[in-house]
Specification:
Helices cover about 55% and strands about 10% of the residues. It is an alpha/beta fold. Strands 3-2-1-4-5-6-7 form a 7-stranded mixed β-sheet, sandwiched between helices. A two-stranded antiparallel ribbon has the order 8-9. The longest helix is centred in the middle third of the chain and has 31 residues. It is globular, with a radius of gyration of 25 Å. Bound molecules: nicotinamide 8-bromo-adenine dinucleotide phosphate. It catalyses: 6-phospho-D-gluconate + NADP(+) = D-ribulose 5-phosphate + CO2 + NADPH. Keywords: Gluconate utilization, NADP, Oxidoreductase, Pentose shunt. Homodimer. Pathway: Carbohydrate degradation; pentose phosphate pathway; D-ribulose 5-phosphate from D-glucose 6-phosphate (oxidative stage): step 3/3. InterPro entries: 6-PGluconate_DH-like_C_sf (IPR008927), 6PGD_dom2 (IPR013328), 6PGDH_C (IPR006114), 6PGDH_Gnd/GntZ (IPR006113), 6PGDH_NADP-bd (IPR006115), 6PGdom_BS (IPR006184), NAD(P)-bd_dom_sf (IPR036291), Pgluconate_DH (IPR006183).
Length: about 475
């Protein structure tokens, strides 16, 4: 019998997805550039299902039923192009190449257009959940043509995570839509991680709690509205003790956060689209600050408030921080969904935010009870009546009302203590900017008109105006 699907690229992600497919009863043809990976997979896991090991791309193509489905799981970038160039000439019109790597969506758009000319469906699929997700059920965000989804969807939905029996996989939209939303997913992940880290830092410095005690605090938080994978693993990391020194693990790890680039991409694209994803941006910048060891060493002598004494803040601080974290998280997710709406409009994808929240409920790194609330916010009425921002959906507006007192106290207290909380602060500033009756943008327009005759609009009547700043300062209508 011929294989239903092929997987090329059998490093950890590809091997685990191939095993996941085989465990679900699908015959999987497997291939890797260096044959040792194919061999190892068959030797160690061949008993899990029906695999067809293939030594060459030609073998893989010959092993597949038609139309062929080939999942590419190689290092994103040049390797993906190399693999596409190897396989495309061997394929026939109607066949499908699926890129499950972390490609930039603009690369996916380029590849999709080029392959479409050759009659081949190219599907850029975001896959989240890391190695474990790939094996046990990831969240999958496929883009590409509706026709390709009809042929691929059932297989992908089969291996995806399930929440309440609903698969965490849906057709996101044409060409680069899947990789775009995966990119924003990762950006939101950056913001969420930064906010949790700030909460930890504030509690540790403000309340003087130990990592072990903080592990309990996060475990407790994980039983409420913050319940999520990231809060859960935060508790696990804080509980960990270094075997070599007996010290808390979090105290022996170098405090320089690294990044692979999807957070940076999210911010770069948000700048192009003009969408303020300040929570994600601060998270990317905070990692950059942490990584600049030399500058940090030189700056250590700069003055700050006297060192916060343990227990300097009152009893209610932990609950305040929890509420501030929840409010800031709502803002970060709202901004991410705004970026998706803007990207969808720019590229004509018609991404359904409710369906997206649904596939993020399980399998992926940002999975959380909270995603159910986002899903409800977007699926409550007609899509045309969806809230302009998640902040305006009744559930979230209410949550922010409840949290805002605590949120303001925490941001003020962080400033007093000298503990950096860029994520909390920017989220609150965004919230206050949105609700402001008047913004100082009017003054900026005045400055622009003064030095560059950039003109301005008036709040009280239509038209475009300029003041003769270097003349008699009368106003003219342009
Ligand atoms: P890697 O990103 O480490 O890539 C290794 C694979 O790429 C190997 O199979 C390697 O073949 C193959 N490869 C390379 Br490198 N250059 C090649 C070329 N020119 N031609 C053919 N094959 C080539 O693997 P991974 O960590 O499993 O990730 C795979 C993809 O999934 C990446 O795009 C990654 O960003 C994405 N992703 C990863 C995670 C995660 O948690 N790791 C999560 C979600 C998505 P070889 O064995 O012959 O060297």
């Amino acid at each position: 019998t011929q294989a239903r699907i092929g997987v090329t690229g059998l490093a950890v992600m590809g091997a685990n997805l191939a095993r996941n497919l085989a465990r679900h009863g699908h015959t999987v043809a497997v291939h890797n550039r260096s044959q040792h990976r194919t061999k190892t997979l068959i030797e160690e896991y061949g008993h899990e299902g029906a695999f067809v090991p293939c030594e060459t791309p030609e073998h893989l193509v010959a092993a597949l039923e038609r139309p062929r489905r080939i999942l590419i799981m190689v290092k994103a970038g040049a390797a993906t192009d190399a693999v596409i160039e190897e396989f495309a000439p061997l394929l026939e019109p109607g066949d499908m190449l699926v890129d499950g790597g972390n490609a930039h969506f603009l690369d996916t758009r380029r590849r999709e257009a080029a392959l479409r000319e050759r009659g081949i469906h190219f599907v850029g699929a975001g896959v989240s959940g890391g190695e474990e997700g790939a094996l046990l059920g990831p969240s999958i965000m496929p883009g590409g043509s509706a026709e390709s989804y009809a042929a691929l969807g059932p297989l992908l939905e089969d291996i995806a995570a399930k929440v309440d029996g609903v698969p965490c996989c849906t057709h996101i939209g044409p060409d680069g839509a899947g990789h775009f939303v995966k990119m924003v997913h990762n950006g939101i992940e950056y913001a969420d991680m930064q906010l949790i880290a700030e909460a930890y830092d504030l509690l540790r410095q403000g309340l003087g709690l130990s990592p072990a005690e903080l592990a309990e605090v996060f475990a407790e938080w994980n039983r409420g509205e913050l319940s999520s994978y990231l809060i859960e693993i935060t508790s696990e990391v804080l509980r960990q003790v270094d075997a070599a020194t007996g010290r808390p693990f979090v105290d022996i790890v170098a405090d320089r956060a690294e990044q692979k680039g999807t957070g940076r991409w999210t911010v770069q694209i948000a700048l192009d689209l003009g969408v303020p994803v300040s929570g994600i941006a601060e998270a990317v910048f905070a990692r950059a600050v942490s990584g600049d060891a030399e500058l940090r060493r030189a700056a250590r002598a700069l003055p700050g408030p006297s060192a916060p004494t343990a227990g300097a803040v009152g009893e209610g601080f932990a609950e305040d921080v929890r509420r501030a974290l929840y409010a800031s998280k709502i803002v970060a997710y709202a901004q991410g969904f705004d970026q998706i709406r803007a990207g969808s409009a720019e590229y004509g994808w018609d991404v359904d935010p409710g369906a997206l929240a649904t596939v993020w409920r399980g399998g992926c790194i940002i999975r959380a009870v909270f995603l159910d609330r986002i899903r409800e916010a977007y699926t409550a009425g007609q899509r045309s009546s969806a809230p302009a921002s998640l902040l305006l959906a009744p559930y979230f507006a209410e949550a922010l009302t409840v949290a805002q007192g605590a949120w303001r106290r925490v941001v003020a207290r962080a400033a007093e203590l000298g503990v950096p909380a860029p994520g909390f602060s920017t989220a609150l500033a965004y919230y206050d900017a949105l609700r402001a009756e008047r913004l100082p943008a009017a003054l900026i327009q005045g400055q622009r008109d003064f030095f560059g005759a950039h003109t301005y609009r008036r709040a009280d009547r239509e038209g475009v105006f300029h003041t003769l700043w270097s003349g008699d300062r009368t106003e003219i209508e342009t």
